[in-house]
Design a protein that fits this description.
Blueprint (H helix, E strand, L loop, with lengths): L2 H24 L15 E4 L2 E4 L4 E7 L2 E6 L5 H11 L5 E3 L4 E4 L5 H38 L5 H34 L2
Antiparallel strand pairs: 1-2, 3-4, 4-6, 5-6
Helix pairs in contact: 1-3, 1-4, 3-4
């Protein structure tokens, strides 16, 4: 394996990690509700756990309301039960046709809690990035041990891997700071 491939793999894995972080951020509630808060909720659909948006139309009808209209009316109760057990901070309201979620305005405490959640998610992402760095460095050490690169090339490669890692960590810090600002803005 050559060095450019190691760098490319490292960058690719980092991009996936950052994309994952961005998806995780969508599950944190901000002042305006988004349907992504329901992304991790699954409904029992003929014995198979199925994502909510695969069995119903999920719409944010205004800044504090989400309406879930199942494609099959018999799913209303299952959807209501799945949302209640997901503990997303709101009780589902079933009108027989659809399930409505009415989110109260966020308190300062909830905003601070969301900001804390974002920071934890960012820290986990940084751990993943550091593990990616370790894997890249291990590949470089292996190349040097197998005498495929010189000691100088190895040193430069380790420096490059560290530079890529530092850039990624800065990007994560920026994303976390932006998310915290979004959450704490009233």
């Amino acid at each position: 394996m050559e060095l450019t491939k190691i760098y490319a793999d490292q960058k690719e894995h980092i991009e996936k990690s950052i994309a994952s972080l961005k998806r995780d951020f969508l599950t944190i509630r901000t002042g305006k509700v988004t349907t992504s808060i329901l992304d991790n909720i699954h409904v029992d659909y003929y014995g198979t756990p199925t994502a909510l948006n695969q069995v119903a139309t999920v719409l944010a009808t205004d800044a504090t309301t989400i309406t879930i209209t199942p494609w099959e009316k018999k799913l209303v109760k299952d959807i209501e039960k799945a949302i209640a057990s997901a503990n997303i901070g709101v009780n589902p309201n079933n009108d027989g046709e659809a399930v409505k979620l009415f989110f109260p305005p966020m308190t300062t405490e909830q905003r601070k809690e969301g900001a804390k959640q974002a920071k934890v998610m960012g820290d986990k992402s940084k751990i993943v990035i550091r593990n990616i760095r370790k894997d890249a460095n291990d590949e470089i050490k292996k190349l040097e041990k197998d005498k495929l690169i010189t000691e100088d090339q190895s040193k430069k490669a380790h420096d490059e891997v560290q530079k890529i890692t530092d850039d990624a960590v800065k990007k994560v810090d920026t994303l976390v700071t932006e998310k915290e600002a979004e959450l704490l803005k009233i």
